[in-house]
Design a protein that fits this description.
The chain is α/β, with parallel strands linked by helices. It has two domains: 141 residues, P-loop containing nucleotide triphosphate hydrolases (Rossmann fold, 3-Layer(aba) Sandwich); 67 residues. It is 39% helix and 21% strand. A six-stranded mixed sheet has the order 6-7-8-3-9-10, with helices on both faces. Helix 3 crosses helix 4, helix 3 packs parallel to helix 5 and helix 4 crosses helix 5. The protein is globular.
Length: 281
Amino acid sequence: MQIEVKDVCYTYTPEAEQPKFAVDHVSFSVEEGEFIALIGHTGSGKSTLIQFLDGLLKPTSGEVLFHGENVAAKGYDLKTLRQKVGLVFQYPEYQLFETTVLKDVCYGPKNMGLPKEEQEARAKEALSLVRFPEASYEKSPFDLSGGRKRRAAIAGILAMKPEVLILDEPTAGLDPEGREDILNVCRNLNDQGITVILVSHSMEDVAEYAKRILVMNQGKLIYDAPPEKVFSDWRKLEEIGLSAPEVTYVMEGLRKAGFDVRTDVFTVEKAKEEILRVFGK
């Protein structure tokens, strides 16, 4: 087991007579190499929850274990944890600050006390992982497009060689090409063995990339299941302010119109296959 979250609660008002819980008795585990999506409407507890995983917040009660050790325990090495569990916040490019992309990506390895040669080797490897063009390594990060800034910022986390990569809305503000580019980077990293936890409001992205979905609502974990199960209950999702992928509603419409299509289809590619099957093409 890579990560275990055990009956975790968190309140921002612990002294209140009736404290309101941002995270309310949540439990789940993460195995090495998984690709998990975490979804929920604004205020559901997603952002609070992911901050437990690399020790930025300590739960009010309950435990978070990384390889069996409680990350909130006295004396636990949080610096090493944050190298192993990389957290990429929304708009990570706002944290770019160095004069060149390469120097910026070297910052994490430098803080780890690695020699300069190792810093640069790690930075170049990380930039290669996110498919950043070598010709732009010496460019100012401020001269890059939005998508390339995002990739450079993610490379800065990867240069510390994390086992787990948590991304909070990594495609926010990007055009469709940039969105697809970043998500394909996430998939490629997962294919190479890195555990990916993707926080997203895009049900299309979640359906396309995640193998397992955690759904938060009012601080509680209400689903922990494959996409097929979660999106089959799209009416329940709508009750809590979410939705299924758009293609799900298309398939429901075709079914109501009398076409014998499956409705447990959640990606464009699968919908295309199903429609062609029904129409005999």
